[in-house]
Design a protein that fits this description.
By secondary structure, the protein is of the alpha+beta class. It has helices at about 20-40, 50-80, 85-105, 220-230, and strands at about 120-125, 130-135, 140-155, 160-175, 185, 190-200, 205-215.
Length: about 230
């Protein structure tokens, strides 16, 4: 059974709709490790890795190592409590199984799209869902996703981090709308690519330009992923 890891902030099919210090160290290690592997792969593959694919795979590797650091931190916390209840033992087993799968690195750990989203970005939707604003056709819909961001603010002369939500509208192309209703929140686990921009006319007759999301075929990056992981 294949375990799918989702990194929060795989070919796509058409269907209805830690401790901060340790995490930073883990992320920093990615750059050096990835660069060495990518250099070795260049001489082994017939074609150079397309820049957008290389960047996507680099982001996946960063997400994988971040997920490992988070699971390790969580595992230490559970073990530190010293409880031996059935629930605790089961939780430890689940975390250890997740860690084993992450370390095996059999498939990319796909991150969420970052903010602000840009043409060429590849990833999953933030919160793995969207809100449907308007159905355009049988496989197109206008929707928006909410990006949660940490921003630094000052209150009572004290700096603090607060979470703010930034909605971004997308035209999602290539996902069946047969079982989708306007105004609904729709879960979408697919990996998407921001394929470009498009201008559409709203119900009110207004012309609006939005980013276009299209399902991304994960099979297209499999040869590059296998070559890089085998070269490490």
């Amino acid at each position: 059974m294949m375990m799918v890891h989702i990194a929060l902030n795989a070919g796509s099919t058409r269907h209805p709709a830690a401790g901060p210090g340790k995490l930073l160290l883990a992320f920093a290690a990615v750059v050096g490790l990835w660069s060495g592997a990518a250099g070795r792969v260049t001489g082994q593959t017939a074609a150079v890795i397309p820049p957008r694919i290389e960047e996507f795979l680099r982001n996946c590797e960063t997400s994988r190592r971040g997920a490992i650091a988070q699971r390790e931190y969580e595992l230490r916390g559970v073990r530190a409590k010293g409880a031996s209840s059935t629930t605790t033992v089961r939780r430890i087993n689940v975390i250890e199984a997740n860690l084993a799968s992450l370390r095996a690195n059999k498939e990319p750990v796909v991150p969420a799209l970052h903010f602000p989203p840009e043409v060429g970005d590849i990833g999953r939707l933030p919160q793995l869902a969207c809100h449907v604003d308007q159905i355009i056709s049988q496989d197109e819909m206008l929707a928006h996703c909410n990006f949660s961001l940490k921003v630094r603010t000052v209150r009572n002369f004290q700096p603090r981090l607060e979470t703010v939500v930034r909605p971004v509208s997308f035209l999602i192309d290539g996902v069946s709308t047969a079982q989708v209703s306007e105004g609904a929140d729709v879960p979408l686990l697919d990996v998407f690519e921001i394929a470009g921009r498009r201008t559409y006319r709203s119900v009110g007759g207004e012309s609006i330009e939005v980013l276009v999301l299209a399902p991304f075929d994960m099979k297209a990056i499999e040869p590059y992923f296998r070559a890089i992981t085998s070269a490490r």
